[in-house]
Design a protein that fits this description.
31% of the residues lie in helices and 37% in strands. By secondary structure, the protein is of the alpha+beta class. A hairpin with a 5-residue loop joins strand 4 and strand 5. InterPro entries: Impact, Impact_N, Impact_N_sf, Ribosomal_Su5_D2-typ_SF.
């Protein structure tokens, strides 16, 4: 597998109501815990009078990082149902936050699980799910005189140039799909006066 599913951009706000409680759902594409913190801080300012800001996220493709937070709701009644929806849709690099305004009637653990699960599902369904490739990045180092042969391979193999430094000693960062990584590594390793290393 060298592809993964995530969402293209932040979802529109969704609203789920249960016995006067309101659950506002949001989904965001994220690639770091800093981004998670940023979205949470913004929503806490936006919904400063809410009771709970429960969330779950998953980041990564080979090394997975995830967290589920109940934010004061009974154990596993909010964060895990939200995380369950991330898993059932097979997504990664995503944060889902459900903001709850308490309506005065207790829902019980079963009611909470259902409300948080439904709200998370609605926020995913309000997003565009996209498939991305898992890419491997390499740094190719060579003398300027070897530029043409390096560029020819990059063009032939349809490799993505992430960044380049063109001086007497050149460095190009390239990216390729995981399934092609070994072949790309072999080609450059066998090139005279060219060095390649995985980043």
């Amino acid at each position: 597998m060298d592809t993964y599913k995530t969402i293209a951009s932040a979802s529109t706000e969704t609203l789920y109501k249960e016995k006067n409680s309101k659950f506002f759902g949001y989904a965001f594409p994220v690639t770091s815990e800093d981004e998670v913190k940023h979205h949470l801080e913004r929503l806490k300012k936006e919904h400063f009078s809410a009771r709970h800001w429960c969330y779950a996220y998953q980041i990564g493709t080979t090394k997975i990082q995830y967290r589920a937070n109940d934010d004061g709701e009974p154990n596993n009644s909010a964060g895990m149902p939200i995380y369950g929806q991330i898993q059932s849709f097979g997504l990664t690099n995503i944060l889902i936050v459900v903001v709850r305004y308490f309506g005065g009637i207790k829902l019980g653990v079963g009611g909470l699980i259902n409300a948080y699960r439904e709200s998370a599902k609605m926020s995913i369904e309000a997003s565009e799910i996209i498939e991305k490739t898992i890419d491997v990045h390499f740094l190719v180092t060579f003398d300027y005189k070897n530029m043409n042969k390096v560029m020819r391979i990059i063009k032939e193999k349809n490799l993505t140039i992430v960044s380049q430094k063109m001086e007497e000693n050149c460095q190009i960062e390239i990216a390729t799909r995981k399934k092609n990584a070994e072949m790309v590594l072999d080609i450059f390793t066998n090139l005279f006066e060219v060095e390649i290393s995985e980043i």
